[in-house]
Amino acid sequence: MIPIVDRASAESIAPIWRMPFRPFFWGAALWSMVALVIWQGQLLGWQMPALRVGVVWHSHEMLFGFAAAVVVGFLGTAMQTWTGIPSPRGTQLIALFGLWLLARLGYLLAVVPIWMPVLAEASFFLFSAFLLGARVLRTKQWRNMFVLPAMLMFAALSASHWLVPGAQSRIALVALLLVTAIILVVGGRVIPFFTARRFHLSPKDKLPVVEWGTHISALGLLLSVAIGLPQMVWAFFALSLGILQVIRVARWHPTKIWAEPMVWSLQVSYWLVILGCFLAALAWSKVAPSWQSPALHAFAIGGIGGLILSMTSRVSLGHTGRILKAPRLMPLAFAALMLSALARIFWAPAPSGFLAAIVAWVIGYALFLLYYTPVLFQPRVDGHPG
After folding, report:
1. What's the sign of the alpha-carbon dihedral 267, 311, 182, 192?
2. What angle do CA 381, 361, 189 make, to 5 degrees?
3. Domain residue extents for the chain
């Protein structure tokens, strides 16, 4: 479908509010850096009585403040391509971003009653569910119906993460696995396409057993954790998911990717998701219980953080009419995210490992903001609306 956007109407809107990817990619990147610097201060023993900083806040902000915001920005933008209906923009987009920002400030400032940011964030996800779900229903794009339950799950998880103290760790894990499942769905669609297109290769046909197995294993892992089945069941689904992803990525021409940073960064990040699957299987099966935290950070930093950096870099260029070529220092940014993941997986819990992981993350996303702030705040270079 070709989206129909009124040019005069679009050009009357400031560029940053013309497509969801613009404010959410920029805001999430900046907030991830701020949140991690504050968290490092907490680890160093800084006294911050005015701030509501702790383990729950840290995990919440990286999952809901960072990752879920990028998911909304990406899906809100992709919805225009998928359905042919213009993405949320202007007043709707400002309201959506405003709810996200209110939640960030409310959770951070200790003086704000917790129910206020909880309400703001739940409203953010419910409004996203309405905006995205309505477009899918209107065009009967059933393949993309996953966006509606995903947004509703984010709303429920984000609220319960603060309001159900006894279950905060498991709720955070469910949220992490939900984001991971989404990137497995999206990554399975776009990474082989981007790889084949960049290197003029013939994309290999998808193996139905691998694709369906991926979806079933990801859903099984998510549900088994959510309802509290024994960890051995979690381990089974994590192991099966990891094996299926090895088969999946082996068909994405992994030996031909190294000349293009915007391709190798996607694939290496995906490999870190696979590493997380195998480490989680070891931890949850009690073979190596100490690997649970490294496994979860393989998902969170290497998989989610790395894939987000690579995807936002590419999407920001493509949707602003620019050539799909990584800016000069962005390969360094992609490598920094890989190093951040490896430091957190294999170097922490040594304090220097935590510091190295956070510094590397900040370098990666600071480079993104350096190059992409003008891209996101300026009109498309080809003159088209969007």
Report:
1. negative
2. 60
3. 14-163, 167-379
pLDDT in tens, 203-259: 778 899 999 999 999 999 999 999 999 999 999 999 999 999 999 999 999 988 999
Residues 6+ apart with CB under 8 A from 112: 105, 106
CA separation for the pair 153, 225 (Å, rounded): 14
> Which residue from 172, 165, 90, 158 is spatially nearest to 124, judged by alpha carbons?
158
CB contact at 8 A, 218 and 184: yes
Q: Is the pTM of this model over 0.85?
A: yes
What token pair was written down for 199?
């290197």
